[in-house]
Amino acid sequence: MRRIAALAVPLAVLVLAAPAGAHVVDGQYRSDVTAQNCGSYDACSSGQSSSSSDSTSSSGELDSIAQCESGGDPSTNTGNGYTGKFQFDDSTWKAAGGSTASAYQASEAEQDRVAGSWIAAGHREAWPNC
Questions:
Q1: H helix intervals, 1-130
Q2: Residue 43 pLDDT > 90, yes or no?
Q3: Which residue among 2, 17, 19, 43 sits deepest, i.e. has the most Cβ atoms within 10 Å of its Cβ?
């Protein structure tokens, strides 16, 4: 897997700034990167958002949710049906755009991207206690 430097721009900024259909890799819009192969890049995010008033997440919000759900450990798999840094169940993980069967099998960067996109799509209620 290619290692790409982490972006210093919060995910919420990327979601709102990128043109529809674009993915951001290493701070650049890339038309050759799709939802299907975005997970193979460590610093890849969807630039899609339906409007600038959508619920978006900051890296601080994602960190807070991850700490609450798993102590921030992307490899968490306790056998309770919820896995990874954000404790996705497998069907929600796939619906949210995860490329692996379970969240804990994906890179931490992909887990961050998927959780951020899920929140940006209006699904913050997925973590009611965090």
A1: 11-17, 59-70, 90-95, 108-120
A2: no
A3: 43
